[in-house]
């Protein structure tokens, strides 16, 4: 893995920051997925481990988040560690003009690892350059969301297993706000590591995928189709990956409203235009307001709707990343013991 540490050196997993998906090579992805597979009994509460007993995660989210923030925290708790949360600018000294450098210098002494989300592209890397502990990027503006790309690919791999398809040869349609959507940026970069992928990029022209990312896909030898038409382009794909209009990156709500609801998928569109086993993904939150409704609730009983399995997988992948970065991946099972309370049917 090409990871830049605080001195700008390339390092392997232990002690590494995870800032961009471009740090990963294909064999690194396999390592993450192999550890994630082993996390399932802990996430399902069949067993528990205390391998990170005493460790502290600084979970710093300066932008709204539900899944990413809570699944980082939950993953850390499931490994036996404790979580300290900072949310919102207003409640931190950043609101008093403190630099990311100073904040990082101080807060990294209070934690063993930091997960961070921030509205500016490049901010998490800037913070990491002053941090004395590993920093995991939970989303920096419209730039990147590397842990989401890993959990998306992990989901794709698992969903395709039973369909006789694999990531090499994958056909995927990415739909919606491809300009500002950091999840599709990171996922596209990650797909460049694989072979013979067909990527159909469906967005309004104004919200198209950044040219550098399209070029990266083409340089990887992939077949890239760019379109602003939904129905005819979701016919021959394994995955439809829908995204939300990233309204917080627009200069006004009115501007975002122009694009809201432009690409809706409901059961009738799915039945008419998709293959019967096409997998439906979305990083969530899906915008369920009537004027947007990008993935209709009438899909909720469709077995190919993978959005909640995708969110569940986020815990496994983030557990794996903590275990690798803090170098305990081979010690997790040492402290394993049964869970004594009622754990329900997970
Ligand atoms: C995404 C994000 O914040 O980039 N969600 C997520 O992390 N699961 C996508 C979004 O907010 O639309």
From TrEMBL:
Function text? Catalyzes the condensation of carbamoyl phosphate and aspartate to form carbamoyl aspartate and inorganic phosphate, the committed step in the de novo pyrimidine nucleotide biosynthesis pathway.
Q: Where is the Aspartate/ornithine carbamoyltransferase Asp/Orn-binding domain?
A: 168-324
Reported EC number(s) for this entry are 2.1.3.2
Asked if the keyword Transferase belongs to this entry, the reply reads yes
* Assembly information from the UniProt record: Heterododecamer (2C3:3R2) of six catalytic PyrB chains organized as two trimers (C3), and six regulatory PyrI chains organized as three dimers (R2).
What is the official name of this protein in its record?
Aspartate carbamoyltransferase
Q: Which SUPFAM superfamilies match?
A: Aspartate/ornithine carbamoyltransferase
Residues bound to L-aspartate? 96, 182, 244
Where are the bilayer-spanning segments? none
Read off the InterPro entries from this record. Asp/Orn_carbamoyltranf_P-bd (IPR006132), Asp/Orn_carbamoylTrfase (IPR006130), Asp/Orn_carbamoylTrfase_sf (IPR036901), Asp_carbamoyltransf (IPR002082), Asp_carbamoyltransf_Asp/Orn-bd (IPR006131)
Task: Give, as in the UniProt entry, the pathway in which the protein acts.
Answer: Pyrimidine metabolism; UMP biosynthesis via de novo pathway; (S)-dihydroorotate from bicarbonate: step 2/3
Q: Give an example GO molecular function.
A: amino acid binding
Q: Where in this chain does the entry annotate a coiled-coil region? A: none
| Transferase keyword on record | yes
Q: State the HAMAP family in the record.
A: Asp_carb_tr
- One Pfam family in the UniProt entry: OTCace_N
Which residue range or ranges hold the Aspartate/ornithine carbamoyltransferase carbamoyl-P binding domain? Answer: 17-157
Gene encoding this polypeptide? pyrB
Which leading EC class covers this enzyme? Answer: transferase
Catalysis performed (reactions) = carbamoyl phosphate + L-aspartate = N-carbamoyl-L-aspartate + phosphate + H(+)
Q: Which family does it belong to?
A: Belongs to the aspartate/ornithine carbamoyltransferase superfamily. ATCase family.
Keywords (A to Z) from UniProt? Pyrimidine biosynthesis, Transferase
Q: Which GO terms describe its biological process?
A: 'de novo' pyrimidine nucleobase biosynthetic process; 'de novo' UMP biosynthetic process; amino acid metabolic process
């Amino acid at each position: 893995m090409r990871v830049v540490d605080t001195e700008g050196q390339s390092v392997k997993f232990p002690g590494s920051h995870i800032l961009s998906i471009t740090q990963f090579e294909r064999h690194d992805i396999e390592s993450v997925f192999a550890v994630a597979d082993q996390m399932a009994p802990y996430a399902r509460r069949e067993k528990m481990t205390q391998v990170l007993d005493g460790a502290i995660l600084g979970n710093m989210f300066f932008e709204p988040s539900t899944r990413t923030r809570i699944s980082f925290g939950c993953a850390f708790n499931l490994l036996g560690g404790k979580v300290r949360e900072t949310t919102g600018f207003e409640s931190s000294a950043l609101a008093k003009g403190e630099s990311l450098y100073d904040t990082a210098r101080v807060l990294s002494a209070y934690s063993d690892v930091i997960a961070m989300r921030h509205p500016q592209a490049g901010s998490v890397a800037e913070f990491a350059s002053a941090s004395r502990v590993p920093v995991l990027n939970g989303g920096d503006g419209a730039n990147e969301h590397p842990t989401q790309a890993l959990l998306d690919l992990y989901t794709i791999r698992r969903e395709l297993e039973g369909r006789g398809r694999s990531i090499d040869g994958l056909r995927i349609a990415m739909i919606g706000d491809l300009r500002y959507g950091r999840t599709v940026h990171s996922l596209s970069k990650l797909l460049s590591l694989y072979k013979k992928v067909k990527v159909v990029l469906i967005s309004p022209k104004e919200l198209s995928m950044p040219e550098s990312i399209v070029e990266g896909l083409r340089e990887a030898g992939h077949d890239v189709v760019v379109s602003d038409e939904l129905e005819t382009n979701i016919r021959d794909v394994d995955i439809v990956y829908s995204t939300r209009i990233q309204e917080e990156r627009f200069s006004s709500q009115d501007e975002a409203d122009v694009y809201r609801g432009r690409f809706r998928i409901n059961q009738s569109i799915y039945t008419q235009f998709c293959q019967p086993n096409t997998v439906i993904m979305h990083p969530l939150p899906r915008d369920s307001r009537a004027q947007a409704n990008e993935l209709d609730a009438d899909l909720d009983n469709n077995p190919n709707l993978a959005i909640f399995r995708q969110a569940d997988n986020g815990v496994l992948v983030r557990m794996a990343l903590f275990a690798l970065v803090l170098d305990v991946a081979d010690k997790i099972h040492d402290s394993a013991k049964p869970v004594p309370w009622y754990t329900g049917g997970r």
